[in-house]
Amino acid sequence: MIVYGDLQSGNCLKVKLLLSLLDIEHQWKHVNILEGETQTSEFLLINPNGKIPTVVLDDNRVLCESNAILGFFAENSELLPQDNYLRAKVYEWLFFEQYSHEPYIAVARFIQKYLGMPEHRVEEFNSLQDGGNKALGIMEQQLSKTAYLVCEQMTIADIALYAYTHVADEGGFDLTDYPNIQHWIDNISSLDGYVGMS
């Protein structure tokens, strides 16, 4: 199995972290987004959308979209509940991550960390702060009630939200305002099999 990704990307980290926690053997192939390596004709044959992470399974079937990949590999593991309601809550958080969290926190991080805050994107960066803090506030509230986002046990919802949350400061978000999130980050980063951005 081959995983195409870049460990500076939160979406790619999700997959790497899950595979490591579940001890699933794979080959990691680094792809540099900033140098256009996802837009080469070779890569577009694998994933026409030109995005990472992309997984090529042993039988050459291809999986794309980070949260879909998480769901696939977590099936029949303790990271994806069997209970229908809890499973739906996991997917609720996965959709939240893609629509209410990542568009603010990941984009702000990209503007500040990777683009170096160019003048023409400062206004956009500032406009992302309210949405990002709203998302963090919702997570903080839930983590005041349960150890993890869905229940007292970690799920792929936590892996998905951890990826960009733990580096939210690189997008201008002050995590000291969110003590429950900080505690949750510490819990995840101390797990056996943990891998971080590199």
Concise description?
This protein is of the alpha+beta class and 198 residues long. It has helices spanning 10-21, 41-46, 66-74, 84-114, 122-143, 156-165, 179-189, and strands at 2-5, 27-30, 54-56, 62-64. Strands 2-1-3-4 form a 4-stranded mixed sheet, with helices on one face.
Tell me what you see in this structure.
The protein is α+β, with helices and mostly antiparallel strands. Helix content is 51%, strand content 7%. The protein has seven helices and four strands. The protein has helices at 10-21, 41-46, 66-74, 84-114, 122-143, 156-165, 179-189; strands at residues 2-5, 27-30, 54-56, 62-64. Strands 2-1-3-4 form a four-stranded mixed β-sheet, covered by helices on one side. Helix 1 links the parallel strand 1 (2-5) and strand 2. Helix 1 (10-21) packs parallel to helix 3. The radius of gyration is 17 Å and the shape is globular. The two termini are 21 Å apart. 35% of the residues are buried. The model has no long low-confidence stretch (mean pLDDT 97).
